[in-house]
Specification:
Length: 542
Amino acid sequence: MELRLEIAQSWRRAELSGLKPSSPADRLEVRDIDTSSRLLRAATPVLDEIARHLDDTRLCVVLADRDSRIVARRFGNRSVERVLDSVSAVPGCQFTEETSGTNSIATPYEVRRGVAVHGDEHYLEAFKQFTCYGHPIVHPATKRLEGVLDITGLVEDTNPLLGPFLAHAAADIEQRLLDGSNQAQQRLLAAFQAAQHRSSAVLALGEDVVLANSTAVDLVDACDHALLREVSRTRRGVRRLRLSSGTEVEVRMEAVSVNAGMLFELAPLRPAYPTHVRRRALGGVLPADAEERLRRSSLARRRVLVAGEPGTGRTAATAVLAGAEPLVRLDAADVPVLGEAAWCERLEELAAGHPGLVAVRDVHLLPAVLAARLARLLDTSPAWFVLTSGPLTDLRDEHAALAARVHRRVELPPLRERRADIPALARTLLGGVPGGTSLRLTAGALELLAAQPWPGNLRELETVLEEAAQLRSAGDITARDLAPSCQVSAASPQLTGWEQAEHDAITKALAAVGGNKVHAAKQLGISRSTLYNRMRALRISG
């Protein structure tokens, strides 16, 4: 059978994910859904009206949310309900191309446009009995995908008019979403106006609205918004927080009606005893404790090993250690070009004659023989050395023995473990790119950056900011400016500690097996469908 291009491409994506046409469709994971969500409130009247038109037909309409998880169904005939139940098309079940192949929920979700899938065009054998039309629901104001609306029937009920009918219904839901947003914003504004004259800082955060009195403007930085949103999702009432400025505050949190937003009242605290807040040096990109250890080592001219993933700031750490002393670098990656003998000769020459800091970069790439020779040189030479390497846990044999020869080891964490620092780091890095000093990152842009996985660490973040700066010569960099380089869907609630651990375990397993999801699931000791579900929930692409 010759497939249409968009269907053939969908089949290819499903195949690459490890899904087989014969895979069962009755074992997909079902989770609880939010029955009071904004999408459901906006869609329910439209779904009820559609159900009236579907009466006595063999058609059903299905609504999925922004995670492609079914949240509502309406039927013209109960016989179709039983058929859909048999293939897991039930509320709480997530339909993605990785788990369910080509269909009119998963494929519109993937390609962000309306798609019709008829009979044999479905990837899974279990779905070939259906004809279906799916259309994405996009919020008119934010342009974010809110869900997918689908109408499904048996193959013999195929009707080309169902496509336009469904598109019109999706447009009605989008308009109701917009109207609901306007009402929510009005309620949030009313709550803020009632509280803004209090002596403390008052901040109101809606989905797309930020309101602040003059005290809050001075106290709360835009990069604190993500922290406040995260805290409000798990707790209400009063608690203490430390803002990005280092100021400790007491925060009173209050929900404004249903999904309208949160009202925050913040009051700085006077500590009962003196405290010392470690702050990153102006313009620095290293963690404050790492930078402090490097500066102490510099004063004593101690030998240091700086370890970490590529892009975590190893070069910056070397510069901090050198301080005002002359710095010369020798890269282990140059061994294949120079040859082992010439590389060793250069190393010994620097150890004997360079008056400042000798940096040997990426020592984990050295052949075992050269690693051993460098270790012996560290034992016999008085020269001041700094070595850089990959993560300490990855060092083995001669490279581990080499690491043991230095006085101090400083390991730089990957950027995904420094999410609270990302807003401040982004501002620092933006100031260093061409034209960046005249630009400002909005709160939405900072939240989007903080939600990214950043496998390339600081180097990748700097590249993204440089590309965004090229699009603007002045003004604000918004989330939309970052969208070409960042996953917009990642700007969902930040991960909890446990979810972050899950995220890191899955990405590490995928990297270890070259992205093969079947092998990754086996290595993690979970089923393939569970892996797909967690990848989608944690916004892991691949």
